[in-house]
Amino acid sequence: MTTTASGPGVDPQGYAALEPVRPAPPARPLSAHAVDEAIRHQLIADIGVERLEALSRVLDRTTFGVVLHWLSSYQRRSLDTKRGYADDILRIAEWLASSTGRSPVALLTDLTFDTVTAWSLYAKSRGWSARTQRRYLSALSSLFEHARRVHRLDVDNPVHLATHAPPLGTSTNGRPPGATRVLELSEVAALAKACSSAEDHLVFELLFVQGLRESEVVSLDIENLDRSQVPPVLSVERKGGRWVRRRLSDAAVRHLDAYLGDRDRGPVLVHPRTGQRRDRHQLISITRRLARHARLPQPQKVTPHVLRATAITNLLDKAKPLQEVQEWAGHAHASTTRGYWERRNSVQRDAALSFSLVADLAEAAAELD
Is the pTM of this model over 0.70? Predict the structure, then answer.
């Protein structure tokens, strides 16, 4: 006769009794503070602690929180775009603090249609181009739309581009539409000769020889340099988040090594006093200083974009293939690249056509006589 075991956990048929399954405790949701801290740490890596601290000083807590989420949105995947938007909002907030005498400023509630109108007049008085003004206003409008739609804040977007921004193709400083200054090669040579430090030479290489945008230059990190190849190859993040690789000249490598010293990580260009990443405004100061030392006319107008525009124009002057120059410059459309050359040569081309008409008219007049 078979004996059936009994006892705790065993049923009368000899099978182990199933313990009731206890449901797992519900996961604790992340607190809003934890989410904000995670976003803050990611933005420190993306835009730099200096920008983040400057924003936190000048903005009130509500606006600063919205800016954190706005900059971390996947709509702004490019680091260049994030850093540029952060700089634009920071400068508008600083202007508002200076105008009102209040700091920090409640940007989302203090900015009205009339306040933005006053800012537009200020931007015009500074001689900013139509494109620059529209960039600032687009960043501001995007922030307000994010606050209204995502954070459900009861705010009205004070930006009206048709009213506040001049249309593209116009100028606020007396220059004709699209008239980017282009230097003669002799002026570029004088600018190169004015370089006195390793950083000066490196900036000149990146802007003129490599034709990079100022935002691309200040975004470069030492980790972007591939030293497994000789000479080293530099990876550059272009507009739209696309990466390209550029081979540096031997001279540039020497200046880069002298400038970096023992540094093996972090931003390539840093401010000598703060050790923080340089921004595009500091880059403009460098090109203007070089222009003054080179004794170029109107040195205050020699910006990083002037060096890039000069490089593009001279490549087209030398009959380099348009498609190759377009790819080198990182332009999405060939018409943008061609526009540099056309603006430079339109005067000569139109003069030649006019002189042709003068010659034809003289010939017809001679036949009448």
Answer: no
